[in-house]
């Protein structure tokens, strides 16, 4: 590990930095200032387009030069802006002054008073965060989560027919197939990813208390709500017409709840995969050069899934705190949300670490069908459900006089191991039709999986 990765306080900026580099490109402090600049420039262009202050609409080439400032905002330019902030002690005001200097350099000094015109800091910040969250989710978070879903679908289909003893309450239960159990997680995750993908990203641009007061005082001839709506929607966001100084964050809260639940599904996947490895149903594929234990050479620890669990728990806690805190703002404004929103990238980052560990972990395990088969063979008592259900059907059809079939089968199977011989002898002794006996005698724990195989077909890519 290089020395540059040792000193950062957060593991996201140190140990896990290579796993969240794409996210840092759109949700770092530098990215926040770059996005603020993008919003300020877009607002400046909008004002000139609408002739505010009798300004003339800018030529296409000039607009292109202004928008290019965003792409040119590299680390050197970021340092220039930070130097301005050292003086202003206000981050958004520093962006305004930075843009003013750029306008002068572009020969637009006579229009520099339109920079940040009638805007409050939260007009800039709420749109910047909305854009960063949207871009992070759609260009970084969703692709990573979708890769995990795609791999789960692949594994579910590959292992759809492999029978496995189910464990309800940790005890032997009606058999299933391993693929069907993986399909359950794929289906659950798909539902949550659809929720995330469908989320809207609200934004507002209406002044210090949401009333367009400064706008109306300075340029009453404009239709400010219409300009605001066009501006916000032009950024690819959903316009909120009724706010205080802040956009109320309800859209963010709903998103964070969906992100959190996606993580909880993934967490459950990790705990189950860990359990299957512990039971021997899954075996881990050795990776050359790696060490499982510092003292026990034989071990291959399920670290990918354990690491993912931990990071998902951290992310869940952060998303929960974000959702609770951002739901409330005192009167027309307090700064709680300003500090809280700076942790959004952390929450997304910890989930990104988890997605990548899960994906890697799934690629380093293989099924152990022999272990599953041995477990099934040793648990014929799980066929008790089938026997008593067949007896019930026989009674309804008038083919049996057995009283209380559940109790009859319970007497044979509860708390004891049933051998195939005992199982067959018991079936032969039952008062049921010959056809029913034939079906039951042909049944084994390996074949008592119902429609598990075909249920995998309900998965969508």
What features would you describe in this structure?
- The protein is mainly alpha-helical.
- The chain folds into 3 domains: 3-117, Fumarase C, Chain B, domain 1, CATH 1.10.275.10; 132-367, Fumarase/aspartase (Central domain) (Fumarase C, Chain A, domain 2), CATH 1.20.200; 380-444, Ribonucleotide Reductase Protein R1, domain 1 (Orthogonal Bundle).
- Helix content is 60%, strand content 5%.
- It is built from 19 helices and 6 strands.
- The strands form 3 sheets. The chain has a two-stranded antiparallel ribbon. Strands 3-4 form a two-stranded parallel ribbon. Strands 5-6 form a two-stranded antiparallel sheet.
- A hairpin with a 2-residue loop joins strand 1 (163-168) and strand 2.
- Helix 10 (250-279) packs antiparallel against helix 11 (303-326).
- The mean pLDDT is 93.
- Its EC number is 4.3.2.2.
- This is Adenylosuccinate lyase.
- It is an enzyme of class 4 (lyase).
